[in-house]
UniProtKB/TrEMBL annotation, chain A:
Record keywords, A-Z: ATP-binding, Nucleotide-binding
SUPFAM superfamilies the record matches: P-loop containing nucleoside triphosphate hydrolases
GO molecular function, one term: ATP binding
Lineage top rank: taxon: Bacteria
Pfam families per UniProt: ABC_tran
ATP-binding keyword on record: yes
Organism taxonomic ancestry: Bacteria, Pseudomonadati, Pseudomonadota, Alphaproteobacteria, Hyphomicrobiales
SMART domains in UniProt: AAA
Family under the similarity heading: Belongs to the ABC transporter superfamily.
Ranges of residues in domain ABC transporter: 10-251
Protein's name according to its UniProt entry: Sugar ABC transporter ATP-binding protein
Native source organism of the sequence: Devosia nitrariae
PANTHER family: CARBOHYDRATE TRANSPORT ATP-BINDING PROTEIN MG119-RELATED (PTHR43790), SUGAR ABC TRANSPORTER ATP-BINDING PROTEIN (PTHR43790:SF8)
Automatic annotation (TrEMBL), chain B:
Phylogenetic lineage: Bacteria, Pseudomonadati, Pseudomonadota, Alphaproteobacteria, Hyphomicrobiales
Membrane topology term: Multi-pass membrane protein
Full protein name: Sugar ABC transporter permease
Predominant localisation class: membrane
Pfam families referenced in this protein's UniProt entry, alphabetically: BPD_transp_2 (PF02653)
Compartments where located: Cell membrane
Amino acid sequence: MSADDGRIILQTEALTKHYGGVHALDDANFILRDGEHVAIVGDNGAGKSTFVRQITGVEQPTSGKIFFDGEEVSFKNPIEARDHGIETVFQNLALADDLDVPSNLFLGREETYFNLGPFSILNERSMGQKALSALKTTGVKIPDLKNKIRNMSGGQRQCVAISRAATFASKLIIMDEPTAALGVQETAQVENIIRGLKERGIPLILVSHNLRQVLDLVDRIWVWRRGKIVGAVDRDKTDGNEIVSLITGVKSGVDEEAAFV
Amino acid sequence: MAQVATTGTTASLPDKSRPQWPAEFNVFIGLILIALVFEALGWIFQGHSFLLNFQRLSIMVLQVSIVGIIAVGVTQVIITGGIDLSSGSLVGATAMIAMSLAQVSTYERAVFPALTDLPVIVPVGVGLLCGLAAGFVNGALIAYTKIPPFIATLGMMVTARGFAKWYTKGQPVSFPTDDFAAIGAGMNPVLIFIAVAVLFSLILRFTVYGRRTYAIGSNEQAARVSGINVEHHLMLVYGIAGGLAALAGIVLAARGLTAQAGAGVMYELDAIAMAVIGGTSLSGGRGSIIGTTLGMLIFGVIISGFTFLRLDAYYQEMIKGAIIVIAVVQDVYRQRMRGRI
Ligand SMILES: Nc1ncnc2c1ncn2[C@@H]1O[C@H](COP(=O)(O)OP(=O)(O)OP(=O)(O)O)[C@@H](O)[C@H]1O
Ligand SMILES: [Mg+2]
């Protein structure tokens, strides 16, 4: 395996999440190395988003261990994960529709003039300027930053969410289906942001259904089926057919139906 | 920027940045129109002006300013996507508590004979703290037990009213010190309302608290994953609403020189109505103190307009009800337009 030499940035051991009787995530052993870009693929309901929620502190796993950057962690909430340098673009965009772009970029980490607890005065100038340059570095063009998110197109919203993550991520960035609802141009733009992250050496976990995109962008592909990791293949040593057969559970040939598995 | 406008994401949405005027502007127009209707009716039926009467206008503002103080807190609660039904009862309860600590020693049937002639800070401070505490309880119930705000504050509404009645076994509490009575004297209630409205208007607009209040109402999940402690924030918002209800209770008691267990009945609905008429969305995320102030003035114009025309108070209630329904329908309609995008 080509990436074996890098330092491990994220590792899970037997990570498991049950929702009542639903085994959404079962015994997942996952490894991500420094600078590596990996994809997580699998059918709907395979447990991809569940995995993301466990490692970002949105939910607490039923059992199993998570190691991040050399130490065992159990994030009690997304703030802790973020404080460790993990930024996430969630599948259901985490944007506040009634706020403008800078307010969304800095949501939960507002810049202030002096500290008066919750009543600290916002430094809107600084946040506005930083938002502008953040969007510039990610190549996102939004005509009016003061416009509310509600009045923006799906593509623009997605780009705001991704710019936010790309701007603040220091150790790991996770994107859950970032291009699911985007047009051709917007998808290309998001893919460019991802390539930029690769150049900056920031590790990425990309959840996607788009195999073309996955094969284009990442180093390694992890395949999920029914809550379990069923394989991890290097991008250079695989092709779409192998991945599809792993996803559906049909090991030989891709034309057969997977219903009997 | 112009040459890149055809690439990237700008191209997908050139037309949505239509000019928008603030939602408060519509409310302002509404206020003017309603006032003009009464002005016209004044000339037709009374033979003189409705608006050009300073005394009438002062009384008009005075009448609504106490509920207006509550509405400032309720607006913030509604912006988070919640509701507060307990404020009217908190007015009653805190009015009783504050008044019982504000009595003069010369009155021999004081609630606490040992605690008379206290400095005014005591009844005010204790009253405000009780309101704040009740608000924190509302917020904690909503944030931690996930009881819908409607139910949690309904519980507080019944409990606080029960407390107000139990406190003196239904007896009114009277004879405050001059200092306490001064709080409600003259135009002081209006001045207190203005101070509260300006303060919270600035806080909502310029502080972290304000930004997060809107964020929670817009998308609570987003606020949570963005690192906002939603539970603490909701407690703070409901606490402030409780504190403002207590302030209204104190002003009401001071103005009337007496506190009764039934004080503030239905104020919660008037306060909610002022906020909604002022453009605060019941689904959260949108609203402002300026809008609520305009909503309050619409209330004032209607009440004083009906008195001016010597119309029955029953009509007043019915018209008020109709305006609330219109405001809510408009809000729902706006939401639906949004949903279609
Ligand atoms: N909060 C929950 N309570 C109960 N079941 C849940 C919950 N969240 C997810 N599940 C279940 O867990 C399984 C995995 O869901 P998950 O969202 O992780 O799938 P996914 O791989 O992200 O799918 P998609 O590609 O559609 O996003 C599904 O069967 C889902 O119904
Ligand atoms: Mg998913």
